[in-house]
Amino acid sequence: MTTTLINQQAQIDAFITHFRRGVEEWITAGEILVQMVEQDPYVYDYIIQQCPQINAGILGRFEQMGRKTLHPQLLLTASPGFAKLQKLPFSLQERYIEEPVPVIVHTADGTDVLLVKAKDMTKEQAAQVFAPGRIRTEGEQKAFLVQQASHRASDKKEAVDRPWKIRGHRAIINGVEFTRKELYAILSQME
Fold first, then answer.
1. Which domain holds residue 10?
2. Are 79 and 121 in contact (CB under 8 A)?
3. Is residue 1's pLDDT more than 70?
4. What pLDDT score was predicted for residue 4?
5. Tens of pLDDT along 128-138?
6. Which of 58, 102, 155, 186 gives a 20 to 30 Å CA spacing to 139?
């Protein structure tokens, strides 16, 4: 190996070591925070006062890490799968950070199972796979897909039946949103 490659490998090794140490330090900081919170419920205020760069949301995440309800690696990637994985028990978070999850997909012959890592999931796959507090079974995923197809079909039928729809306090006509006040103004101009 050339000197450049040896130096680069040493730098890569050093980076990975510091990265891993950083994650371990987050856990340690979280554990310390948990001890402090249990001794004094106002400790968040004291910390924020001494270090204004930290806010209550960040402290909450460190407390979750300290209580082993949030794996720190889930904070390093903004993926839909990791966002859903954060809501699962810690044991499942640890397991599925690297282990792929079975995802049911439609094929020409019916359905098939893909193994997809949580960090690589699309928003749709994450919604299909993760239920509140757990991972859906393959049968539940198939039922979820059938339900989604049914909703899409009814949405299309509704769109065909009428060129407008109501969403909250707004009417959407041909893709343009109107408030009640705007619709009233339009109607008042008609003779």
1. 1-70
2. yes
3. no
4. 78
5. 999 998 999 99
6. 155
- The residue from 70, 97, 122 where one domain ends is 70
DSSP codes, the chain = --HHHHHHHHHHHHHHHHHHHHHHHHHHHHHHHHHHHHH-TTHHHHHHHH-TT--HHHHHHHHHHHTTSS-GGGGS---HHHHHHTTS-HHHHHHHTTS-EEEEEEETTEEEEEEE-GGG--HHHHHHHEETTEE--HHHHHHHHHHHHHHHHHHHHHHHH-SEEEETTEEEETTEEEEHHHHHHHHHT--
- The confidence score (pLDDT) of residue 127 equals 94
- Is there a domain that residue 41 lies in? yes
- The answer to whether the predicted template modeling score (pTM) of the entire model surpasses 0.90 is no
Determine the pLDDT at residue 53.
92
Whether the pLDDT of residue 106 is over 80: the answer is yes
pLDDT, tens only, 76-89: 888 999 999 999 99
Angle, CA of 115, 149 and 158, to the nearest 5°? 155
What is the tally of structural domains in the chain? 2
> Which candidate, 89, 92, 81, 85, places its Cα nearest to that of 126?
81
